[in-house]
Amino acid sequence: MRVYWRQWIRRWRLPEMRLLFLALWISALAVAAVGFFTDRVESAMERQASQVLGGDLVVSSSRPLPDNYRQLATQVGANMAEVISFRSMLSFGEATQLVQVKAVSTHYPLIGQLQGSKDLNTVGLSLNGQLPASGQVWAEPRLFDALQVPMNATVVLGKSQFALTTAVTKDPSQGINFFQIAPQVIIPLADLPATGLLSPASRAEFSLLFTGSDRAIRELKANLETKLAPTERIRSLQEGAQNVQQALQRAGRFIGLAALLSVVLAGAAIVLTAASLVRHETRSVAVLKAFGLARRRILVDYLGNLWLLALIAGVLGAMVGFFLQALLAYWLVQVVAIDLPAASWTSAWVSIVTALVMVTGFALPALLRLLDTSPMQILQGSFPRQKSLANWLILSILPAIFILLWIQARELRLAVWVFFGLIAAVLLFWWISKLVLNGLARLSTRPAWQWLALMRQSRRSLLLVVVFAIGLFTLLLLTALRTDLINRWQASVPADAPNYFLINIQANEQAKLEQFFQQKQLQTTLYPMIRGRLVEINQQPVTSDDYPKAEAKRMLEREFNLSSFANFPESNKLLAGKWFDTQTQGFSIEKGIGETLGFNLGDSLTFDIAGQRFTETITSVREVRWDSMQPNFFVIAAPGTLLDKPYTLITSLHVPTAKPELIPQMIRQFPSITAIDTSAILGQVRSLVEQATLAVQGVFAFTLVTGLLVLWSALQAQKPERQRELAVLKSLGASSQLLRQRIWREFLLLGGLAGVLAGSLTMLAANLLGYYLFDLALSLNPWLILLGALVGAVLVASVAWLNLRSLLRVAPMALLKT
Amino acid sequence: METVIAVSHLQKQVLAAAANNNKETLNILADINLSIVAGTSVAITGTSGSGKSTLLGLLAGLDVPSAGRLALFRQDLTKLSEDQRAALRLGKVGFVFQSFHLLEHLTALENVLLPLELGKHSGDLKQVALAALEQVGLVARAQQLVTKLSGGEQQRVALARAFVTQPKLLFADEPTGNLDRHTGQEVAALLFRLQRDHQTTLVLVTHDESLAAQCDAWYRLMEGRLQRQEQAA
Question: Could you say which DSSP state residue A396 is in?
């Protein structure tokens, strides 16, 4: 054992061994950091799922829930709490703020505890089951900031005044909602009617939460299911927040796979390094065999050596990855207030297994060839060139990559897709680089382009270009997505685009509000909004069970926002049929909803609106730009047709920054109106996207580092060849200065070329993504190419110089001797 | 006296690429007969390409003959697998090569330690290795990486490595071939001294006739056959 250990220590002196270690370590690090982090976010989701739900069983609806549900709960002995939640404006003196009002009954929350304090400067403690007393409102700390309101101040909600007595730091059923822009306030349920904020057409969620024994909950669920009205939904733990969870799990896996790109690049570094290690060790093995060492001994020796190397790299990678992840989590917690549970150790195992799979798949095959070294070679003095890597690629390297992908993706299908995508991407880079290099080589035969002759060694250059271009491409693409796309998206929103949405405008306030706008010289149209549920298509009843797709199910479970008006919406495009005029009546539908639910021009739709049925035929199909900041509707009825049903009104308007007092004035006059500051939402979405991509970019920075590592390994592998070349040049009288220039020129060219390739492909990819995903016009950004060329040239040339400069200092004689 | 190597009617053929793109059988060794007694030194000379190194490799069990009988330490090498042949060499056979073949990432001491660590040796191995280096006059440079040593010094480290396990049999392949005349003579003197001190059987393959003349027996390899050369002394 001690002999192996000693051998290991001695082999550590080989630069190849240290390179192998570095490649393994970086891979383990990337996998661990990303793994720990996504794992924590995922388990945060899981833990929150039950709390988000607020009970073991929840019935909710956009309409008030019938009383007999409460009796059913009492019959089976379940605990119950009631919550009504909606958005409204809260004001303090002149200042107003959009808030999420949560009116709660006694026993809330059924699971967990509210935490908070009576003093903004102390840490929130458990409130021991207390709830706001009548006339009191409790609020999230950020409301105090937003409104600059002190503790115990009097605030106004609708027609009622409340004393603001507690800052709630944690509400277990609030969950993680990145897009919850409005701070939450809690009031007693009994105080709600007096505020006058709820009208039959208001948008609110009415929920009954239940907890109890498994049997009681099962029984209750079965009872409730027979009685559910179409707008009502039952959620239990199994279904709770499942969509969010799945989405996050997927996102986590994709980031994990992104991290794997650097692992695959590191794999390339390992293959190269192992090849030069083999060249180095062939003689050692021949000598050892001559001394009488058996193949098995040699195998055990190298196997032990490499696995030990991988084990140490994996453990160290997991450790450093853990710290990196902790930093990232710390930063994320500052940005979005989420509570991350501790990381599980699974990721540490995954990173160690990754290192072991890598060394086994990528390095061991090359080293196994060592075993076939004949001791006779040592007498003959010839060490034949090793056979091509093609066999190992198929037998060992590709399977290893696939296993790694599978471990990360945890899903065979995804792994297969990514695997072939990766191969296609590498082949594309390979092919393009080869084409360009061959072109340059041909060009160099012309006298004026002779300085390009260095690029004729295209086999050697190709590897460097491909590897580095891939590393740079991933990084540039993320940069482009983060800055370029977001900027372009923002530029596509005009400066005077609406920045406020007003919702919950009561029908009886319409005239007064229009008058108010006229006084303030604001142009705006109020659209009626009627809520109805789709119940029949062509007189055939439909339910969510008829559709397998989650999106379609959701659409049928929720109520649609319908409207009716005469002027064709500016931001829409008529695709088929005819817009309403005196002859044309019926419905105008949005294209996507027709596709999702399977209806089109000429079909008839029946909506249930507050218990009454309303049937019309589809007479036109529109395309809607959802990011136009205008009110948009899936279904519009002919002007005037729906106004006998209960409705509220909605509008959007542009409030100039010079008139900040306008919205507060309006809210005081019309307290039930909810004003949503969309520019703030846009800003928040933007910063969220930026932060998310920054995190992903951090992952891709690994790719660049591994790209450099591969570059170094490739240079190390090519060193003997270059050494001979330089020796010959020196012996022919080339000065060190000339050789130095030669090295710089070659690698500036190679790096620049890799950069230009990466930049061009980034531009192409960013444009395609922008065009197909974000509907943006194509735009050429030559800076990307320039940036790529510059970064590529500087990085590649510097790394090459660091690797090769020692060769310049050696006397030509010594070079020839080795 | 114990016979260490016994060879009769040994042949070695290899396939070589011929001009017409076919493979052609080349007779490197046609009919070798040789017997080497323990403790003696035997030189084999011949022109370049005469098959000296091939013969050395066969005698050491590094390769297998095409025909004939070959016994090393009374074991029939033709009946042993590669690993069994290796096991036969372990600790009993030493090598000195023309281009030294020291492990470059190791120090002089570590190179000498290597065969001790590989075999079943016990005790203070480091002291044993240092003693071997002492014998070749390099103890002061024990901790140097071998790449920092001169050619003569490297070959002396190789001698220390070869003798440190006290092998019964030592194969030397052009041990002075890469050295200048003066250094070559020094190294040769050291080799013979160590061989006598350790009572080692020595098989020496060389171009250098003056070196061959110092051995107990001298064979010339010509057209795949060995001819005994009469010693001057």
Answer: I
Q: Which residues of A touch B105 (CB under 8 A)?
A: 10-11, 13-14
The interaxial angle of helices A398-409 and A412-443, nearest 10 deg, is 130
CB spacing of A291 vs B118 below 8 angstroms: yes
To the nearest 10 degrees (0 to 180), the angle between helices A678-731 and A242-290 is: 10
Interface test with A, best of B59, B103, B178 (most A CBs within 10 A): B103
CA distance A375 to chain B (A): 6
Phi, psi at residue A77, to the nearest 5°?
A: 80, 30
Asked if A202 and A209 count as a contact pair (C-beta separation under 8 A), the reply is: no
Place of tokens 């409460």: A70
Residues 156 through 215 of chain B touching chain A, CB cutoff 8 Å: 173
**DSSP-derived secondary structure for A13-37:** TSHHHHHHHHHHHHHHHHHHHHHHH
Tens digit of pLDDT for each residue in B122-149?
888 899 999 999 999 999 999 988 888 9
The ipTM of this complex is 0.77
8 Å CB contact of B103 and A287: yes
Question: Cβ(B107)–Cβ(B145) under 8 Å?
Answer: yes
Tell me the per-residue pLDDT of A415-473, one tens digit each, with 9 for 90 and over. Answer: 888 788 878 878 888 898 888 888 887 887 777 776 676 666 666 788 778 878 887 88
Name the residue facing B90 among A3, A13, A291 (closest C-beta). A291
Token output for B94? 């030493």
The three-point CA angle A780-A462-A781 to 5° equals 10
Q: In which order are the strands placed within the sheet that holds B67-72? A: B23-37, B3-17, B67-72, B75-76
Inter-residue long-range contacts of A714-718, CB under 8 Å, 24+ positions, other chains counted: A714/A272, A714/A463, A714/A464, A714/A467, A715/A464, A715/A799, A715/A800, A715/A803, A715/A804, A716/A15, A716/A16, A716/A19, A716/A272, A716/A273, A716/A276, A716/A803, A717/A272, A717/A273, A717/A275, A717/A276, A718/A460
Nearest to A380 among B53, B105, B118 (CB): B53
